[in-house]
Amino acid sequence: MANIFFGRGKKNHLIVDTSLLGLRGIFVNQENEEEPVLEKAFSSRWSSHLTKSPDDFEKNLQATLKSFAAYFPPRQFLVTFCSSDPSNREKFVQIQNIDEEDELEEYLISKKLMKASEDFLTDVHVIGPSISEIKSHQDLIIHSVQRELAQYVMDTLEETGYELEALEFPSNSLIPFHNLFCEQAENQTDALVYIGWEVSMVSVFFGGVRRFSHMLNFRLLDLMRLLVDKLGVDEDFALQLVREELFEVLLDGKEGRVQYPEDLMNEIREEMDYLLDELKRSLIFYSARVVEWKVEAVDRIFFTGLETRIDPFYNLIASSFPIPSKRIVPIEEIRFSDEVNAKIPKGAERDDFTLSFGLALRHLT
DSSP letters of 78-141? Predict the structure, then answer.
């Protein structure tokens, strides 16, 4: 079942991504260029609790989109929208072959495999025939995100004058990352992991095709909120601590700028243990359920999220798997316009655009 298409036109393609932490927009231009260029970028941060106050959120979003529309004039752009907030979910499903789109949707709803449409925005990605030698099924990934925040922002974008072309989901950004930035090998099984502020996920590719995807129940946002609650600091400072020192203190025993209580560190250790367990279970699920042990294991694992910037965090995860691992940072592989280079210094701030960048690559013609 295809993405949800709203309109078409000969305009530049703009990716808009919103979440509990803010709104981002990027325009990647490939016209008359051998390589794509990140031409324009916009970012506005807000409190992670802002969406809990509808009136305040509405006022803030209106003000944000006023600046956004001045930077990205609506008449010049078609919008692909993604809501990368923590309500994103994915379900891997194997069912009998159903070719008709409407019939497929009816079947998934009747079997309660799709979430209620009044509460969630949902899309079904048909992977294709199962690669299991035991089953003659087709494989699907069902993406969903809670409707309330995503629908409100989409409606407000339309009211601002933008034409919405498609609704996207975070894990689809990993497809071009694997295709373009991971060395390809025939019959190779690769896992691509992304750890982010609000969504974390793993996708598994076999023979260059994504065969499985799972949203991990781990978010750096939760660690940020723990620091806010336990240390009494504001969100901006807590974000800094997570980016710059928390894992060095936790895993390498280094001194930090603040004193971290032992009960806080124990909570974070439990979160890390859960992340590793869930990631291992996801890969076991792939081998056992998706390919029915047709392949012995995942051959390589790539990391592409915020964990790539935090050495102790990356080393912990990578060392937990007895297979070759590598970090890739696609956002650093593209040429930035002088304007974007001036606005977004090289480093951590660019990571906020990673998912948007992946979706932009996916929609380049």
Answer: EEEEEE-STT-EEEEEEE-----HHHHHHHHHHTT-S--TTTEEEEEEEEEE---SS---EEEE
**DSSP codes, 287-344:** IIIISTTSSSS--EEEE-SGGGG-HHHHHHHHHTSSS-EEE--GGGTSEEPHHHHHHS
Interval 168-172 mean pLDDT:
97
> 325-327 and 300-303: which strand pairing?
parallel
Question: What are the φ/ψ torsions at residue 45 (nearest 5 degrees)?
Answer: -90, 145
Q: What mean pLDDT do residues 187-191 have?
A: 90
CA distances 137 to 93, 131, 140, 213, 226, Å, are 10, 9, 10, 17, 44
What are the residues whose beta carbons fall under 8 Å from the beta carbon of 139, sequence distance 6 or more?
Answer: 92, 93, 94, 126, 127, 128, 129, 130, 131, 211, 212, 290
Average pLDDT over residues 206-235: 95
**Sign (positive or negative) of CA dihedral 196, 350, 171, 286:** negative
CA–CA distance, 79 with 13 (Å, rounded to integer):
6
Q: Identify the DSSP state of 5.
A: B
| C-beta separation of 151 from 87 below 8 A | no
Which residues, 6 or more positions from 114, have their beta carbon under 8 angstroms from its beta carbon?
A: 105, 108, 122, 124, 142, 144
User: What is the model's pLDDT at position 10?
Assistant: 67
Q: What is the structure's pLDDT at 21?
A: 94
Mean pLDDT of 70-75: 97
Phi, psi of 20, deg, nearest 5: -70, -20
Nearest to 188 by CA among 288, 297, 286: 297
Q: How many residues does the chain have?
A: 365
- The Cα 163–Cα 183 span in angstroms is 37
- Pairing of β 138-146 and β 89-95: antiparallel
Give the strands of the sheet with 209-216, arranged side by side. 209-216, 200-206, 189-195, 300-303, 325-327
b/e 54-86 (16+ beta carbons within 10 angstroms → b): eeebeebbeebbeebbeebebeebbbbbbbbbb
